[in-house]
Structure formats: structure tokens, C-alpha cells
Design brief:
alpha/beta; six-stranded mixed β-sheet; five-stranded mixed β-sheet; 8 helices; 16 strands; 29% helix; globular
Length: 299
């Protein structure tokens, strides 16, 4: 059994379990809320409160401590691109990646750490890959604070990578073109997958309160943007589905869209991933633990 710790703006989550050829089995899970402005865009602003929340997660877990913890950072602390990478060795790919991020305004003068994950075969023997760049100081902060709690880290990943790993296991979405919406508080992560492969990822802050008509209009606008992007790329294939996670408060909106909104089927992730993620606890929902669970998958 392994443990994944997912950290986002408003929460620290853990998921204990294992991932194998037959799917992901979740043995234990839990969430500790974070007060506002404890973590913003992946950067820990209140280190004492953060450490208290992680210590509470350790208390809630069935393990006496967290060893070789798999950490997943949410928010917009990292920069991403989906690119076709050349057919060359890892060291050369990492060097090549620096040029892909060289024009980003966020780079400033701070040292970056680069990594990538292949997500599909590419043309001419290359690979389609998710590229990631993150400030070294952010990773060092997590390592230091978790070290203060005597927690050893096995790996550090980011939320979109965990999402990709989980959706790649979802048989219903295999080879399909779909939109994935993940709602965390008032932050919306919107992703477009074409033929089962991630093409674009956008995070936006929704301005209106959840449950308001303005909030629902913003959701509709974000979906429309993804649909238009798919069309602008000259793709003939229609979008097969829209998958939703984190929408537990929006049941009425989901039903309204299913009955007469978008001409695209809306499905909660828990329904689509039922065969890929299992848990004996009836309180568990993959809708609320997508990134924490996806981070259990080794790829």
C-alpha cells in the first residue's frame, strides 16, 4: 500500500491504496481543510498552519506515519505544455525543454526544474509528452516542511499529471474526444482530450459564487471555449462527453444540462471510472479525490 498526499489551495488530501493492472484500489482516504491564504498557487504562505494540516492527515490515516510519500501539488505553481518531443535521450530532452519555456514571462530569474511524461506515441518515432517546469524553490519548500514532520518523499508530481494517468486508465474514454472539468472551490481546471490524448489544459478563477446564475454562466462559457478550440484546430470529430469532478454542489445544474443544455452528454467521473477505481467505503467518491488517487499510479 502506498500513500498519496494532494495539496491544493483549500485542502490537504490523502489516499492510501495500490494501483495495478486491474485498476486502483483505495483503502483509506481523508481531507483536511486549509484556511484561506495558507497555500496560493502551490506556494505555502503559512508554514505552521500547513504543517498542522499535514500532521492531522497523518493522524487520520491508518498508517503510523507517511513513508515514501507520493506528493501531488495542485494550483498553478507549475507551467505546462503538450508537445511532440524528438526521439532522443532523456538528458537531451530536458535540455531541449528549456527552449520551450524560454518565452514565459513567469520565469524571471529563478531556477526551474524540468520534467516530462510521455502520454502517446508521436510522429516519426517521437512521443507526445506533457512538459512541466516549476520553480526549484517551491519543491525545496515542500521537501523542507515535510522533512520537519519526519516524512520521507518518494516523488513529487503535479495535479494535471495525476489527472492524465487516471483518465488514461478509464476504458470509457479510450480513444475518445472529451472535456474534463475539475472544480476546486471557485477554481476550474478545464482540459480537452482528443482521441484520448491531452491537448490543452486551462485553469481559471470563477468570479461568481457557487450556485448563482452567474456561476453557471461562467461554467457554460468555459465549456464553450473548449468546444470552440476543438473546432478551431480543424478537427472534424465531435466531443463525445464532458466529465465532471468536484461538482457535488451542482447537482441541479448537471441535471439541467443533461435534460436540455449542451448537446454533449455530461457524466460525473465516479460514473465513468467505476470500473477503474474501487473502494469499500461507501463515503468515497473519485469526484472528490481525482488527483490524490491518480497520483497513486506509477507510469
Amino acid at each position: 500500500m502506498e500513500t498519496s498526499l494532494y495539496i491544493n489551495t483549500d485542502r490537504v488530501q490523502f489516499a492510501c491504496g495500490s494501483a495495478g493492472n486491474k485498476g486502483v484500489v483505495v483503502d483509506a482516504f481523508g481531507t483536511v481543510p486549509l484556511p484561506p491564504e495558507t497555500v496560493i498557487n502551490g506556494i505555502i504562505l503559512n508554514e505552521g498552519v500547513f504543517k498542522d494540516a499535514v500532521a492531522r492527515a497523518v493522524e487520520l490515516s491508518p498508517l503510523t506515519n507517511f513513508e515514501k510519500l507520493r506528493v501531488c501539488i495542485g494550483g498553478s505553481s507549475a507551467m505546462f505544455k503538450v508537445r511532440e518531443i524528438p526521439n532522443m535521450g532523456e538528458d537531451k530532452v530536458l535540455e531541449w525543454m528549456k527552449g520551450e519555456f524560454a518565452s514565459e514571462d513567469q520565469l524571471e530569474e529563478e531556477e526551474l526544474i524540468y520534467d516530462y511524461a510521455t502520454i502517446a506515441p508521436g510522429p516519426e518515432g517521437g512521443q507526445t509528452a506533457l512538459l512541466c517546469a516549476i520553480k526549484k524553490s517551491i519543491l525545496e519548500q515542500y521537501i523542507r516542511l515535510l522533512g520537519d514532520l519526519e516524512i520521507t518523499i518518494s516523488c513529487i508530481d503535479v495535479g494535471i499529471a495525476s489527472q492524465v494517468k487516471l483518465l488514461n486508465r478509464m476504458k470509457e474514454a479510450e480513444g475518445k474526444t472529451f472535456i474534463m472539468l475539475y472544480l476546486i472551490g471557485n477554481n476550474l481546471d478545464a482540459s480537452l482530450y482528443v482521441d484520448g490524448v491531452l491537448k490543452i489544459f486551462v485553469r481559471s478563477r470563477l468570479l461568481y459564487d457557487r450556485g448563482s446564475s452567474g456561476f453557471e454562466e461562467e461554467l457554460a462559457q468555459n465549456i464553450s471555449k473548449m468546444i470552440q478550440f476543438n473546432k478551431s484546430e480543424g478537427r472534424d470529430g465531435a466531443i463525445d462527453s464532458i466529465y465532471l469532478a468536484g461538482f457535488s454542489q451542482e447537482k441541479d445544474w448537471i441535471q439541467a444540462q443533461q435534460e436540455g443544455g449542451f448537446a454533449i452528454p455530461l457524466k460525473e467521473l465516479s460514473e465513468a471510472a467505476a470500473g477503474e477505481v474501487t473502494c469499500n467505503d461507501g463515503e468515497f467518491s473519485i469526484n472528490d479525490y481525482m488527483c490524490a488517487v491518480g497520483n497513486l499510479i506509477r507510469e
